[in-house]
Amino acid sequence: MNGRPIDHVVHRVDDLDRAAATFEKLGFTLTPTAYHEDRMGTRNRLAQFRGRNFIELLEVDRPETLQPHDFAATPPFFGFGAHNKAMAGFGEGMTMLVFRTEDARADIASFAEEGIATYAPFDFERQARLPDGKEVTVSFSLGFATSPDMPRLAFFVCENRAQDYFWKPDFQTHRNGAESISAVYFRSEMPERDAAFLAQLFGGRVSLRDGGFAVAAGEEQELRVFSPDAIAALDPSFVGPDDGSTVMAGLELAGSTAAPTVPSSEAHGVFLAWRAR
């Protein structure tokens, strides 16, 4: 079973302008800066791919306005900006993994039936600038889920209610040849446990790999949950958490060319590997 396709990864950075300059030098075409609502307190730029997934470079630029978590509420409230603000203390890197959905509320109910920690649905809008300069409104519904064994990570489904405005072919051609996210790498001291959670959450089959496990996530996509040693072999510069927490460490990008791995030390905490189609 292939499981749910990856929609995007949230890559939290300290300075969006500086990170965007880095990614543009690495050959990515980025969308213009967009601002989320004040209750999220964030702004972003995206590297969109023809495979209908993307990297979201995200900065918490208005920490004073964001809505905090409220886990005592009924249902509990998970704050998108609050999570990314909390993760700022651990350095730059990926903080959230996102999957496609046609119905966020139905997925929340399904997660709850599986005994997975879920939260109130989160609906929001933001302005987006089209390649011709026109400003349009895009809107989304998010359904969050978390694992107590992976406190530095959050997962959610994203129901995109403005597909025609959101996906912009003019921004999907990249000098480095990237066409899609083909894999997300996790650094885990308990790969079997974490792979099992991801499979439960998004329905992908689990297979054994050198260094850990792979969870299928859509056609030609995988979540690779690897041991610290296996991640170090891929990127010696990646710095793992002192407390042994599971984190996302890198991406594999499929495209027209294959290039040497970009270490996390040169890409704001995330290594970039390549796979030629």
What does this structure look like?
- With 277 residues, the protein is of the alpha+beta class.
- It has 6 helices and 15 strands.
- The longest helix has 12 residues, at 191-202.
- It is globular.
**Span from first to last CA?**
22 Å
User: What's the gyration radius in Å?
Assistant: 17 Å
Low-confidence stretches: none
How many structural domains? 2
What is the N-to-C order of secondary-structure elements (H for helix, E for strand)? EHEEEHEHEEEEHEHEEEHEE
In DSSP terms (H or I, runs of 4 or more residues), the helix count works out at 6
Number of strands: 15
- What is the CATH level 1 assignment of the largest domain? Alpha Beta
The fold-level CATH name of the largest domain is 2,3-Dihydroxybiphenyl 1,2-Dioxygenase, domain 1
Q: Please describe the biggest sheet, giving its number of strands, its sense, and whether it closes into a barrel.
A: 9 strands, mixed
**Global outline:** globular
Structural class: alpha+beta
- The percent range for strand residues is 35-45%
Q: Work out the oligomeric state of the chains in this entry.
A: single chain
In round numbers, the mean pLDDT is: 95
CATH homologous superfamily label of the largest domain: 2,3-Dihydroxybiphenyl 1,2-Dioxygenase, domain 1
The CATH architecture of the largest domain:
Roll
Helix amount? 10-25%
